[in-house]
Specification:
seven-stranded mixed sheet, binds S-adenosylmethionine, about 40% helix, Rossmann fold, about 25% strand, 4 helices, alpha/beta
Length: about 200
């Protein structure tokens, strides 16, 4: 099986084009919503091509990490185009080199659906370590719809999504939240019943 780094090495060039219908039709309003009320130093984990950049709050400083140098190259181009100062670093979200409590908030959009089931807990533990105790970890993810027709369509899409993005719709990130020393503060759907927002905080 291809590693995620290799998948995104191949996909990077086409990522923004392949994703464009979903970006315009679904993701943009969700990205704007994701950053509302955040301040200070934010980590964008799995920054990809930097699709979130337009929505970073002006007064915040942001660090973006990603496993894939090819995706980071694209993100650097977007950063230049938008005239932003964003730190971009090649790192695995399960093993970063940042000190404890380094960030005021953490966001991850469509990262956990790309991580394998056995990476969910290590990734959450690492984000828990990096986020200040009063900070929030905000995650936007896909889930399988409960509507039979929508679910069937998603099942038909799944092999393509797996091949192009190394992603799956059936990750159960919430299951690992307590084990990572986190608590689920909020869970709600932002688009139909297929794109959800999870807000996590460290356990008091
Ligand atoms: C589906 S893309 C989402 C990108 C971006 N967050 C967005 O909303 O468009 C997933 C990204 O996660 C990155 N990724 C996959 N595994 C990773 C890991 N273990 N650590 C850091 N980034 C990872 C991929 O390289 C890819 O850029």
């Amino acid at each position: 099986m291809m590693t995620r780094k290799r998948v995104y090495g191949l996909t990077a060039r086409l990522y923004d084009i392949l994703d464009l219908p979903f970006e315009l039709g679904r993701y943009r309003p969700l990205r704007a919503h994701l950053f509302s009320g955040l301040s200070g130093h934010i980590l964008d984990a799995g920054v990809g091509t930097g699709r979130n950049m337009e929505f970073y709050p002006q007064e915040c400083s942001v660090t973006g990490i990603d496993l894939s140098p090819s995706m980071l190259d694209r993100a650097a181009k977007r950063r230049a185009r938008l005239g932003l100062r964003v730190e971009l670093l090649e790192m695995d979200v399960c093993r970063t080199t940042f000190p404890d409590n380094h960030f005021d908030a953490v966001v991850a959009t469509f990262l956990f659906c790309v991580l394998d089931e056995n990476q969910q807990l290590p990734a959450l533990k690492e984000l828990s370590r990096l986020c200040k105790p009063d900070g929030e970890i905000r995650i936007i993810e896909y889930a399988y719809s409960r509507n039979p027709v929508r679910r069937l369509v998603m099942r038909l899409w799944a092999p393509w999504v797996r091949a192009i993005y190394g992603a799956a719709f059936d990750r159960e990130t919430e299951r690992y939240v307590p084990g990572a020393g986190l608590r689920l503060v909020e869970r709600r759907f932002l688009y139909q019943d297929i794109i959800k927002l999870l807000i996590l905080k460290t356990q008091a």
